[in-house]
Write a sequence for this structure.
């Protein structure tokens, strides 16, 4: 039990540091990071020949994916966005362009067609949020487990890339049995591939 408590405390500490570091970014730094991130995400999608991806609508504290979403729409790349379901599960929506709604936990979610369970396993590439990722590919989420449950449930798991800021790539993040590793990470300055 002590080891579990230590892991939970360490995860909480890292999340707090990440939140503080992200809050300290100026509007200019956020804008520049968003533009650079769009370029890195586009490079990844093009290099892998992806025609369908998952992504997310960013919270104010998350790396800004809005430029990438516009880029993908302009190139006819299908983008699926997450929606919160009961039981801390994710559903996936094909946005219809009619706006957004307030979802669970105050997170903005797209309006659109809710796809059948398992549809996310058919995309070419998954781009998911994270608080941090380590150099072995272990992802640290925000503590509710939505993405870990989603990844664990997939029969076919596409390549998964955590989207983070440069300072969120750490030497090590604590992990428990339910935590899911990722294929790589995308930051404003680089695309990383793990293992």
């Amino acid at each position: 039990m002590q080891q579990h408590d230590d892991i939970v405390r360490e995860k909480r500490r890292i999340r707090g540091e990440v939140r503080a570091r992200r809050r300290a970014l100026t509007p200019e730094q956020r804008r520049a990071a968003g533009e650079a991130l769009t370029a890195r995400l586009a490079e990844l999608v093009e290099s892998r020949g992806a025609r369908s991806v998952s992504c997310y609508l960013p919270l104010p504290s998350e790396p800004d994916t809005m430029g990438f979403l516009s880029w993908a729409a302009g190139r006819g790349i299908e983008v699926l966005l997450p929606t919160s379901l009961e039981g801390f599960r994710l559903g996936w929506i094909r946005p219809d362009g009619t706006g957004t709604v307030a979802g669970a936990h105050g997170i903005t979610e797209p309006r659109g067609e809710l796809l059948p369970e398992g549809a996310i396993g058919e995309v070419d590439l998954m781009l998911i949020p994270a608080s941090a990722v380590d150099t072995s590919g272990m992802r640290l989420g925000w503590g509710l487990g939505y993405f870990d449950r989603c990844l664990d449930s997939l029969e076919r798991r596409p390549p998964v890339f955590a989207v983070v800021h440069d300072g969120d790539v750490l030497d090590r993040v604590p992990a428990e049995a339910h935590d899911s590793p990722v294929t790589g990470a995308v930051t404003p300055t680089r695309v990383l591939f793990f293992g």
